[in-house]
Amino acid sequence: MKIGILSRKSSLYSTRRLKEAAVQRGHEAPVIDYLRCYISVASHRPAVIYGGKPLLGFDAVIPRIGASYTFYGTAVVRQFESAETYPLNSSLAISRSRDKLRSLQILASKGIGLPVTGFAHSTKDIDGLIGLVGGAPLVVKLLEGTQGIGVVLCENRKAAESVIEAFRGLDANILVQEFIREADGADLRALVVGDKVVAAMRRRSAPGEFRANLHRGGTAEAVKLTPEERSTAVRSAKALGLGVAGVDMLRSNHGPVVIEVNSSPGLEGIEAASGVDVAGKIIEFIEKNARPGNPRDRIRG
To answer: Is the pLDDT at 209 greater than 80, yes or no?
Structure first.
C-alpha cells in the first residue's frame, strides 16, 4: 500500500514511528508537509499538488494535523477524500474534535459522562455561569487551547470572576467546567483504534500543577482501565466519527468523565508508558479498512 503521512516534520516522534511501522509491514509511507500542499478544485479531477506535482496513487492518508492549522489541514484531507483516498480520520471528524464545545455537545447527546460544563458569551451573568457548574473551585478553558494551554483552575469565586472577565474582555470563547477534586491531579489517556482501546496510561500532574499534560511536566504510567472506562473511550471516538483517537478522562465519584477527544494523539508518551506498539496497531487498522469510499462520515453534528 501507499500511505501518505500528513505531518509538518518527519522528525517528530509520532510521524517517525508511523513511518517505521508502515515500512516494516511492506508499505510505502512518504511524509507530506500538508502546509506545502495546494489543491486543484475541479469537478472531475480533484488533485493535491506537492512540490509542483500531483500526489497520485495513495491508498490512505494519516492526518497529523496541528491544532493551529486545522482549517488548512482539513481542507487538504478533504481533497484526498474527494479523490477517494481513505483517511484514517476524516476531515469532518477532525473538525468536530477540534471544536471543544461542539464535541462536548455531541458526546452529551450520546449520554457519555462529562464534567458539568457552561458556555456563555456575555459576562453580565457570571454568577449564573459559576452557579451552573456548582461554584468554585472550577476550571476555565479557552475553546482554542491545546496541550493544557489556556486552562485555568480558579480556587475561589473572586478568582473565577476575574479570569472569566479577563478572557471575555479579549473576546475569547471559553468553557467553564466543574472541578473534579477526586481525580487528584491525574487523568487517563485511552488510545482508541477502531473499536478497541489498544493502550492506556495514567498521567499525573507535576507538584503545584493541576494539569496532567506531559507537555506541562506531568508523568505517565501504565494503567488498567475498568470496563466502563474502556466503553466510554470507544463510544466517545465513535460519537465523533474518529478511527483513531486519544480520549482523555477523569475518574469521578460518578464514573469516568471525558474532558477531551484528540484526533492526532501523540504516541511517544503512551508507547513508553504502556509498552504497546501503537503505531503498528494503527497501520494494521489501515490495512483492514483502507478502500475507496470508506468510511463515509454519517455522524450528525
So the answer is: no
Q: Is the predicted pLDDT of residue 219 greater than 90, yes or no?
A: no
Residue 298 in any domain: the answer is no
165 plus 210 within the same structural domain: no
Q: Note whether 83 and 143 are same-domain residues.
A: no
Domain stops at, among 132, 147, 179: 179
Domain of residue 253 covers 182-289
Indicate whether 89 and 9 sit together in one domain: yes
Average pLDDT, the chain: 90
**pTM, rounded to two decimals:** 0.89
Alpha-carbon distance 272 to 274, whole Å? 6
Among residues 130, 151, 179, the one where a domain terminates is: 179
pLDDT at 15 over 80: yes
Q: Which of 220, 301, 271, 261 is nearest to 21 (CA)?
A: 271
Q: Which three cell numbers stand for residue 12?
A: 517528530
Please tell me the predicted confidence (pLDDT) of residue 171.
80
Q: Is residue 108, in this structure, part of any structural domain at all?
A: no
CATH number for 63: 3.40.50.20
